[in-house]
Structures are given as structure tokens and as C-alpha cells.
Amino acid sequence: LFVYFICSPPQNYPLYIRSVPTENELKFHYTVHTSLDVVDEKISAMGKALVDQRELYLGLLYPTEDYKVYGYVTNSKVKFVMVVDSSNTALRDNEIRSMFRKLHNSYTDIMCNPFYNPGDRI
């Protein structure tokens, strides 16, 4: 199970949400929105130390009984959240970080598209 979520600052408006498999997509909206509070807490706790970094991988935001929630924030404060099964022990921190980088690169490609209107859903 993978759930990808991208939201724009400052309203945390969802730009993209994708669930694999797709039948439980609405189930994860609550999980993702509660994780945005954890992302904001981590960003404010880290403070100015993060300003100089190129990427802001936040790591594991919180585990639940069934899922693990990971976070990533760009320099422009766009937040990425990923939810994976807790039973999937094959995923390591480096692989999650790599998935976030690929997701960030895809997001950047969309934003650079001259036919994309900023603020539209992806």
C-alpha cells in the first residue's frame, strides 16, 4: 500500500492524493491531514537549522498499528506525505527518501510545465 499526498502552503490545500490500491483512497484523507500537523510541529521545532538544506526529509512522522506515515518538505514549503503498510519491513529509510526525491522531481516537472495553472489539482 502506498498513499502519496502533496499539499501547497500556506492553506495545506491538497494538490494530489493517490492511493495504490485505489479503493480506499478516502480512508486515508484523515490520516494524511492529521500528519500535516505533525509536519508543521517538526518544521517549527527544527527552526532555522533547516533553512540551509536543499531537501527537508522529515522521516517517520508517526506509526500506527497498520501504517507508517513519512514526511518531506521542499524549500518552498510544499509538503509531501507518504503512508505505507507497517507490515512492509523491506522498505528502509533510504528507499523512502529516494521515493520522495522521485516524487519531488515529478512535482517540479509539473510546475515547470507552461500549460499547468498554479493552484490547480494535479
UniProtKB/TrEMBL annotation:
<dbReference type="GO" id="GO:0048471">
    <property type="term" value="C:perinuclear region of cytoplasm"/>
</dbReference>
<dbReference type="InterPro" id="IPR006722">
    <property type="entry name" value="Sedlin"/>
</dbReference>
<protein>
    <recommendedName>
        <fullName>Trafficking protein particle complex subunit 2-like protein</fullName>
    </recommendedName>
</protein>
<dbReference type="Pfam" id="PF04628">
    <property type="entry name" value="Sedlin_N"/>
</dbReference>
<dbReference type="InterPro" id="IPR011012">
    <property type="entry name" value="Longin-like_dom_sf"/>
</dbReference>
<keyword id="KW-0813">Transport</keyword>
<dbReference type="InterPro" id="IPR044760">
    <property type="entry name" value="TRAPPC2L"/>
</dbReference>
<keyword id="KW-0931">ER-Golgi transport</keyword>
<comment type="similarity">
    <text>Belongs to the TRAPP small subunits family. Sedlin subfamily.</text>
</comment>
<dbReference type="GO" id="GO:0006888">
    <property type="term" value="P:endoplasmic reticulum to Golgi vesicle-mediated transport"/>
</dbReference>
